[in-house]
């Protein structure tokens, strides 16, 4: 099968992309509004971009009114990316509901806000790893309904819970991160294999 996206509907193209770019890691992004309302929402268009300096990205899609996360990041230039473990799956999913901007989404989802060190938004206490970020750059990629805005953030603090460390390093089994597949499917990160790079 060969598909020309110019001839496919945006919805079919979205389905195609999200079922072949898998598994996608999940950034549970915490922010605060300029009125101090706490917000938390998951984004699976998420990845690492650079390690020097450490830069990560995530991509909110357009919505009217715009998603609270993007509004808050634009105004405050700060956010925290919290890694999602399996134990957090239900609450993470609950936090994706379209709550109005004046609702504290930590409370709605049942997450524990823990003060951050270098930024105002709290991190999620249940998360095994949290990355405090300052906004690096926003790239308006497409404002069409299935478009997206690329948000790049510099990590200014890493918080790693001791319980996921083995010999001083993050252990994938202890981390237990989950990832997004196509449709309503998720994956675990337990089924792995190792392979050395040539010349390494
Ligand atoms: C696992 C998961 C991944 C998601 N990934 C994205 C994403 O990458 N981009 C996006 O715009 N919305 C994504 N969503 C939907 C948002 O979380 C949802 O629109 C949310 O209401 C946004 O919240 P906010 O208005 O508080 O920012 C995802 C939802 C789930 C459950």
In the residues, how many domains can be counted?
1
Based on CA atoms alone, the radius of gyration comes out at 17 Å
- The CATH superfamily label reads Electron Transport, Fmn-binding Protein, Chain A
Note the main sheet: 7 strands, antiparallel
**Contiguous uncertain segments of 5+ residues:** none
Gross morphology: globular
* Overall CATH architecture: Roll
- Give the end-to-end Cα distance, rounded to a whole number of Å: 37 Å
From N to C, what is the helix and strand string?
Answer: HEEEEEHEHHEEEEEEHEE
In this entry the ligands are: flavin mononucleotide
Task: Report the strand count.
Answer: 14
For this structure, the CATH topology is: Pnp Oxidase, Chain A
% residues in beta strands? 35-45%
Classify the secondary structure makeup into a structural class: alpha+beta
* Level-1 CATH class name: Mainly Beta
List the helices and strands and how they pair.
Elements: H1 10-20, E1 24-25, E2 27-32, E3 38-43, E4 46-51, E5 54-58, H2 68-76, E6 78-83, H3 89-94, H4 105-109, E7 113-114, E8 123-124, E9 129-142, E10 148-160, E11 165-166, E12 169-170, H5 172-175, E13 179-180, E14 186-187
Antiparallel strand pairs: 1-13, 2-3, 2-6, 4-5, 5-10, 6-9, 7-8, 9-10, 11-12, 13-14
The structure holds flavin mononucleotide (FMN).
Flavin mononucleotide binds near residues 39, 44, 59, 60 and 61.
